[in-house]
Each structure stands twice: as C-alpha cells, then as structure tokens.
Amino acid sequence: MEGKALTKHLRISPRKMRRVVDLIKGRNTDDAINVLHFSRKNAATHIEKTVRSAVANLLYVKPGADSHGLYVKEVFVDGGPVLKRARAGSMGRRNMIRRRTSHITVVVAERG
After folding, report:
1. C-alpha span between 61 and 20 (Å, rounded)
2. Fewer Cβ within 10 Å of end Cβ, the chain: N or C?
3. What mean pLDDT comes out for the span 18-32?
4. What is the pLDDT of residue 11?
C-alpha cells in the first residue's frame, strides 16, 4: 500500500528543491522528517509538510498500518508554470526575469 501527496505551485525554483529532496530519498519517514526539520534550507519546510501529508494519506487509507514502518519510496520535483516579469536592460531594452515554480510529489510505502 502506498500513500501519495502532491504540493503544487510553490514559489521556489525546482533546482533549489531538488537539492533538499535528494537528502531523503529511500529513508524511513521518521528519519526524513527529522532531517527536513533541522535542515536550514527554505525548501525543507515545504517538503516536510508534503511528507507528513503522504504519511497521513496512507494511514487514512490503511488504518492499521504502522507509521514507524514507512519509508519514502519516491520523491521528485517538477517544474511548474513560470511567472514572467520584466526588468530594465541595457540601452533601454527589456530583460525577462523568469520566476520559477515547483510541484512536489512524495510517495511513501510500507517496508516489506
């Protein structure tokens, strides 16, 4: 049985999110939440909430499951829509600024 959680349209770039996501792949959910809670990266708070949501979704579907026997089966970050903004460039031109957004997907499962 698997529990899945999605968080969409986060205003942080996918490149920054992936650095934190790589820390928790394959870990037990308790260890993953602990690592994320004490991480100093801003992205860790968003990922921690998504992991907690995935665990809660699994426990809702399968009430008898042990929350300590779960692990992070899959976690990945996709790029979301890009907000395009403009800034003044050289010689009176316009330079584009791309404000990137992210989508997080976390899948937790039981070991065994």
Report:
1. 28
2. C
3. 96
4. 97
C-alpha closest to that of 55 among 1, 111, 3:
3
Q: State the CATH number of the domain containing residue 60.
A: 3.90.470.10
- The set of residues, in sequence order, having a beta carbon less than 8 Å from that of 61 and lying 6+ positions away, is 1, 3
What average pLDDT does the segment 2-10 reach?
Answer: 96
Count structural domains, the chain: 1
Quick count: other Cβ atoms within 10 Å of Cβ 108? 28
Is 51 or 63 the better-scoring residue by pLDDT? 51
Domain, as residue range, for 88: 2-110
Between CA 108 and CA 73 the distance in angstroms is 5
Assign 35 to helix, strand or coil.
Answer: helix
Distance (Å, whole) CA 84 – CA 18:
22
User: Cβ contacts of residue 29 below 8 Å, gap of 6+?
Assistant: 51, 55, 67, 70, 71, 72, 108
